Structure formats: C-alpha cells, structure tokens
Fold each of these.
Amino acid sequence: MNPTVRHRPEVHGHRGCRGLRPENTLSAFLHALELGVDVLEMDVVISADKQVVVSHEPWLNPLFCLSPEGHPIAVDAPPQQHNLYRMPYVSIRQCDCGQSHPGFPEQVADPSYKPLLSEVLAAVESAVLRLGRRPVGYSIEIKSEPEYDNIFSPSPSDFLPLVLAELTSMGVLSRTTLLCFDARILQLAHRALPSLATCLLLEAHQPWIESVQQLGFVPTTLGPDFHSASVTAVTALRTAFPGLRIVPWTVNEPDDLRRFIRLGVDGITTDYPDRLLPLLGQLF
C-alpha cells in the first residue's frame, strides 16, 4: 500500500456506470457490478400510479429518451410535456431511454426502459449471488425539490414512505444510504429511522460546515460536488464533524481520481468505475 494514502475509498458507480452504459438502467447497474464497484448510486422518482421508478429526472430526458410512441423528443420540449409523475408506469416502461448520450462517447447504447427500484434491487441481488461476490451497497438519491412538490413529485411526507417501503421489502435497508439535496427528506428520514444512513448532497457553491449545521443533525455522509473539495475543506470538515464520511461526486478524470485518493475521502462517485478501480488496484 502507498504509505501516503490512508485507506482505500469505496467505488460508487454513478447511475450505474454512466460513462459506459445508459444511465440508471439494468444494463448499467449489472455492468458496474461486474466491474467490481462497492456501491451502486441511483436516482428515484414517482410515477402517476405511485411506483418508485429509477430515473434522474422526473421527466423524459430528450438527450437519450424516446417518447412512448418511439419518437425523438425535441430538446426544447418543456419538462411538463413528459412529466413522469403524470404518467402511469406502464407508459413510462414503453419509453426507450437507452439512446447514446452525446456527453459520453464511450457509452454503449443499449435499448433500455426506466426500471422500477424493486426490479433493480432484485436483479442486482441475484447477480451478486451468481458472481459469488460480497453484497453491494446502495446509494439511493430521492429526487425531491421544494419547487417539484405536487408537480413533478409528491411532497416529502408522501415520497419518503414509498421509497422506504421498497427498500424494506427487498431487505436492503441496512446496506442503503439515502441521498438528497433536499434537507426536508433527510430530516424526515432521520426522525423516522435514526439508524438509517443518510447523505446530504451539496452543489459546488454550498458551504460544507454551515450546510451540515443547518440540517439539524449530523448525517452519515456528506456528498459535495467535487469542484468544492480541497485539503483545507476536508480537514476543516473532519475537525468539525469527526466521523462524518465524505463521498464527492462526480469524479471522472484520472488526475482528479488520483487527487481524491490522496485526499483520503471515504468514497468516490464516478461515471467511470473502469478508470478508478485499476488506480486503486495499483495502490492497495
């Protein structure tokens, strides 16, 4: 082991492995699992019939999704036109969201639908047994924002129980961290299940220590935009909140990956697990 590196950070596959397979699809999660990630990161929204759907946006993204009829979606189409919260899951499932993403040239297109959270968990748990590897962790981001309430998503008090019910039913709650930018979700989760691992997500402009203080409790993990991370910021946070885990997002370039390994963060969220894993193999 390199003596300058304190410990091996966890590898968190962002939306599965967005750089390699269409995001938040069964293909992406299973490929990331085969690569050897420690944690699968994914996003969840709610359909009109209250199904927990794995999707980053609560609408169809025109960059890589087709309409239920199989037609391209105009890039300037208003989100309300393809609002998943107004669509029953049977319609959502008809949409191919496995088109090539223009921002990820290494991504292999794979016709794919937006799966249910329960479907992803069942497929991954089965694959873990088949591969004979240790169980994987789950980072589940609830896509809640105050301006989304009752337009693109239920209110937090209705949203959170739907997600917790799926995680409980699948028996993976103890291996799950609940992520959110919306403090309301995390506060509700902490009151309902104080032992549940939680992660406060932060944009680059949001201060680390003040944001944790405003939350009202110390979460398990802080998930900052990697652009805001520095030796000074990491040191100050560890001094203020000893034991608070740091898992930055989304780190993709080799130089940045090396920098965060040296920083001694607890995990690294990346679209390219195939870049991070070899680096860790050289060090640990």
Note: The longest strand covers residues 39-46.
Amino acid sequence: MQKRIATIIISFISAISASAQCSICTKTAQQLGDGPAHGLNGGIIYLAFIPLLVIGIIGFRWWKSEKNANK
C-alpha cells in the first residue's frame, strides 16, 4: 500500500511543471532570458524541497511511532 501511494505521489510531482518564482524574481528572470530563468526556478525549487523533505521524514517517523505506541 505504501509503495503504491509513493508511486502515485512521485508521478504527480514529476508531471507538474512548478513555477516557484515571486513576482520580482520573475521580472528579473525574464530580463535574463529563458535559460537562466529555468535555472533560477530550479534553484528555488531545490532549496525549498530539501527542508520540506526533512520535515516530511520527521513527521512520518513521528506518526509511525505514535501509531505503534497506541497499539
């Protein structure tokens, strides 16, 4: 069950073309051109993904320990 959920989540994440730029970053990136704009967007997503991944792992482990403690 968990593998199926993980596969679904990964397929949705990989299919989404995310735009993580604020309005100021978007204007700056538009002036730089298309290539640097994609690089800037990729960097923003990378910097946001790592802390969210760590929080997700900690939350999942906490949930599992609470679930096992209640049994």
Note: The helical segments are 2-15, 23-32, 34-70.
Amino acid sequence: MLNKSKLNSSFDCSALPEKVLQFGTGVLLRGLCDYFIDKANKQGIFNGSIVVVKTTGPDVSDFTSQDNLYTISVRGIEGGLLLEEDIVVESISRVLSTHTHWDEVLKTAENPELNIIVSNTTEVGLQYHEEDVLSGCPDSFPGKLTAWLHRRFETNKKPLVVIPTELIVDNGKILKDIVFKQIESNKLSGDFKNWVTQNVQFCSSLVDRIVPGKPNAEESEEIFKKLGYKDNLLIKAEAYRLWAIEGENLEDILEFAEADAGVKLEKNIEKYRELKLRLLNAPHTLLCAMSYLSGFDYVKDTLNDVLMEKYITILMLTELGPSIPLDVDLKTTQRYGREVMDRFRNPYLDHKWISISLHYTMKMKMRAIPLLTNYYDVFGTVPQYFARCFAAYLLFMKAVKLEDGVYYGQREGEFYPITCDSAAYFMDVWATSDCSHVINTALANVELWGTDLTKLPGFASNVENHLSNMIHLGVKEVASALNVYA
C-alpha cells in the first residue's frame, strides 16, 4: 500500500505550514487543484499544505491509511506527443470530516498562515439553506463557510481568498451572495459583515481537466504492477489542465500559479469560459450525432478516421473559432483548438458519444446556436459544416419506438436511447418522415432555440439537403465527402 515509506524523495509535506482549506475530496479537486499545489511545493514556490474537509461521511481512513498520499496517472497527448506520467501527490497534510471533526475544522480559521479556501461541492452545493450557522455544524457548504469566516473574524481577522470551483458561471459571486444572505438571516454583526466585505475576496474560477477517477480493475492492476505498490486513492487524469481564477492582486497569495502554465490569474476569465464552451463543449455537441451515426462509439475513434479528423478540424478552426461571440484573437482560438483535438484523440480515455447525447437539445441551444447566429453576423452566409452536424442531430432525434418511458432511435439495426427532454416532440415531428416538414417545423420552433432558425438565409435549405443525403447515402458518406454536398 502507498505510504511515506514508498517514497524515494526527501520532500516532506508535513513540514509545511497549512495554507489551504479545501472543502471536498472529489477527483477533480485532487486531479487539478491539489496537483498544482503539489507541483509548486516540489519546485519550492508555494511551500504550503492543504487541509481537506470531507462533508460526505465520517470515515477518512482511505486517506489516513495512506498518509494522505495518492497517485495521479496522467495519460494523454501533450504537444502532439503521448504522455504517460505517474505522480504521487503529497500536498495534503490531513483530512477532517465535518461529521466528527467540526471543531477542528473551525480551529483552522485561527491559523494566520491559512489564507486560501477552495471548494467543489457540486452545483447543488452552492445554494442557500435557512439554518443557524453558529449552532453546531451547518448542513450547507455556504453555511459552513459562514461559520468558519465568523471564527476567523473572532480570532485573527487575517484576509483570505475564497475560490469555488463548482461548474457554475460566476461561482464566486454566487457564493459571496449566499454568504451575505446567511449573515443577514443569522443576524450576525455589522462589524463581521464589514470585515468580510473588506478582507475576503471571492474569486470566480473555471476548472477544466478530464479526471475519470479510478481506472477499472484490470488497468489498476497494470498500474500497480508498474508502480510497485497498491493505491486505493489512485486516479486517472488527462494531460490537459486549466484553472482560471478571476480576481485582482492574487499573485502574492496564490503563489502556486507560477509552477504551471495551466493556472491563469486574470481580472476577467470570460475568455477561458467562452473558449471551453465554444471550442470544447460545442464541438462535442455538434459532432455527437455525426460521429455516432457514422458508426463511431468513442470520441477517440472519430479522431482516428482521417476524413473525420479533417472534417472536425475545418469545423472548429474555420467556422466555430471565428464565431465565438467575444474578442478572441485568431492565434488563441487556433492554439486552443489544437489542444482540444489532442484531448479528443486521447487514446487512454473511453469517452462515449452516446453519453454526450444526454440533454442533447438543451446542449445544442446553449452551446452551439449562439455560434450559428454569430457566424451569420460575421459572414452573412451558411456555415456548411455546422449545417451538416445539425442535420445529423435531427436524424439522431428520430425516435422509432417508445418503451418503458424511453425513446429509442436506430443505428444499423440496433436501438439507442434518446435521453433528451425533446424526444417526444421530435417523435411527433418525424411522424411523417418528410424532411421538409421536419426541417421547417423544428427550425422554426422558437421555444427550442430562442429564435426562428428558418430566418437565417439558406440555413434551412442546406440542412434539408444534408439531411436528405444522409438518409439516402449515409451519415459518414456525407461527412467524408467534405465539400461535395456544400
């Protein structure tokens, strides 16, 4: 089993002061935030450890039995080259449970060297709950944070930075608003409120790294054999990593940012959010049906097809990149696009297209349609590759049966689930199997898209042309033909 005796280095995390309080033990925090701090410590930059707070149960033995150590198996492509790296993360000093160690959690507020709080309690965690935050351990994370800040105020009053990493836009502002609502509802003092206002900086942040968690049993055994020890906390992560943190004058506190270019300290992180949404999430959405109906089950399989890779490259760099509704220079979008392509082709990740189709219509509306309308604003013409992807999406949404409340489409004689809130709507739309009816009805649905897509010059006719060709010739044939049907 992994423990300190297995390490060859002289580095000792226990000798470092505790500078970070982390709410959450999930794989994303361990594979990204704790990784960055560990890297900075080993470079002699940050020189601080993390107190991790577990909120899901009293048992912390999975950490203590391994001296709070764990291994990250980084597997992916970086700079066009395969990367395999196994890193023992040594940045955690101790793990406390709110169920059994709440007094110890509060006592960390008295440590003047601890000036960073990080959280990932899922999107559900950033919600207000009416509760007495000073009577025992509060139920909600914002309640726990308010109680901790109150202990800080009562003891040393040292300034600090709070960085939520929950996948919500403006997560820092949202958390701050909830904390102030807790202060008001609990009738805490005006002096405390003023102290929080002046001394606690809530920073919105964006995290981006695929951390699937523990590999399957077979892969884990292979890694353990290579490492020479077993690790019950082993996690797998891709090579790409990003932690964009929004705020001002953060460099002196967040010193760990120097250790890795993946940490970005910016006054505004909207650029990173837009790049991720439009050049990672949107391509996933647009290519999902095109790839799946072409016979590819996994994202990496699509990238291994020469013609499909060419299709994706053109879509991303000539249509999606220039359509980002934000002033981002071409070099930035192209560099990010190449990084995304490396992530898509990662041979170590089994990312299924059918999984990406969850909530398909909502994703199409939120991620892709703004790019379509902005493309028209910029170029005034039809984005042909986008149009083909949209045609494939409509074909994917053609349900052929309803069984036990689940709608199913069909690919090469096999059924697949359509896990989308609009599945029933599209089953009705496809009842006539007439392409023209499907196109004109679905594209004109303002409730689905927020706008009437038939009003975009040439878009409906092009989608109809591509959809008809897909039905008669095959989806992959239309995608592979590239400019033939444009």
Note: The domain at 270-480 is CATH 1.10.1040.10 (N-(1-d-carboxylethyl)-l-norvaline Dehydrogenase; domain 2).
